[in-house]
Amino acid sequence: MCKRLLGPSDDVWQIHYDALARTARGEDIVLMSVGDPDFDTPEEIIETLVSRIRQGRTHYSPAEGELELRQAIADLETNGTGRTFTPDNFVVLPGATAAIYASLACICNPGDEVVIPEPMYIGYRPMLSALGLTARTVALDLNDDCALDVEALLAQINARTRAVLINTPGNPFGNILPRETLAQLAEALLERGVWLICDEVYSLFTFDEPHVSLLKAATELDNVVVVDGLSKSHAMTGWRVGWVASPASLTRAITAYSGSAFFGCSQFIQDAAAFALVHNGPHVEEMRQAYQRRRDYVLQRLDNIPQLSYVRPKAGMFVMMDVSRMSNSGLVFAQDLLAAQGVSVIPGEGFGEVARDFVRLSLTHKTNMLAQAMDRIERFVAG
Ligand SMILES: Cc1ncc(COP(=O)(O)O)c(C=O)c1O
């Protein structure tokens, strides 16, 4: 596993690390390369955590997670989908990353294949490497609303395919997979005995159309796994709270996996997470509106820069900027932009070759900082 994990260093992340090093040296860098919300976790959630620690909620927790939190998730999913979920359908893990990793670990054996639409979230490949899995990719149509061609995806399936991993709303493009696509895919994969894992961590930050959960769209849930968490929706990246929704048989396996790898998550964090899910709707809505305003601001600035264009994100906290009129590589553009103007962005290549014409801007900044970043980008393209 060490050999698989410690591959050659990644140019794409190097830009971010260089930007961090320059910031640490006191240079004036605008860090647009990371998806960590600039909002602080809402105060009531923090107060709940502190009071639960004082109440002695500092002991081991069951491997599947605290009942109060799993009940809160079950209630939300029941209300959101019209289906009945119980706490037994959910396992709590330390973040969506652990939840996806645990799902893949329980579904697949080393040497198996996983089909993933590309561009894909930058975090998936390291998980596959760690687990000894191979990715087969299928390109989203960037000229058609990031449409997923289900037939093209199914053509990638072979005897070694154990799972398909999708992400909606998507990172980096903020695209939303339509309900029909999700339903069609789930059904076709059920017929083929393949699991469908759907990462929905941006589900609460949609702007132009509602997110439809795979838990609602799929006709049968026998092969369906949905991952979600609080990192983005509640500005809680450092708290490490995520979960898996899956059929009871897989939930039992993931619980056993979690018991062996983590021996449970913190009680007080889960208590505060349950509070967040039950009581913190207004804060989530405020943050959603802020991201929407920031997206609209950045797009309006880009509308006035003829050398640049974009694919309009419908959700999430990123804008993919098309730099193909300036450079034939997002990586080269990003390196030059950082060197010349001190703005760090993630090159599209990090999400797959299909996105090499793009760089990703993060909207995790107040508008005055976004204004500064856009001024610098404007100066850079003007030469
Ligand atoms: C699509 C996607 N999935 C998962 C994660 C990781 O979430 P967590 O912090 O809950 O592990 C991220 C973080 O950027 C993401 O963008």
From TrEMBL:
InterPro entries per record: Aminotransferase_I/II_large, AspAT/PAT-like, NHTrfase_class1_PyrdxlP-BS, PyrdxlP-dep_Trfase, PyrdxlP-dep_Trfase_major, PyrdxlP-dep_Trfase_small
Record's keyword terms, sorted: Aminotransferase, Pyridoxal phosphate, Transferase
Short name of one Pfam family: Aminotran_1_2
Chain ranges of the Aminotransferase class I/classII large domain: 28-377
Domain of life of the source: Eukaryota
Cofactor annotation: pyridoxal 5'-phosphate
GO terms of biological process kind: amino acid metabolic process
A GO term, aspect molecular function: pyridoxal phosphate binding
Keyword Transferase tagged: yes
Annotated family: Belongs to the class-I pyridoxal-phosphate-dependent aminotransferase family.
Protein's name according to its UniProt entry: AruH protein
Organism of derivation: Symbiodinium necroappetens
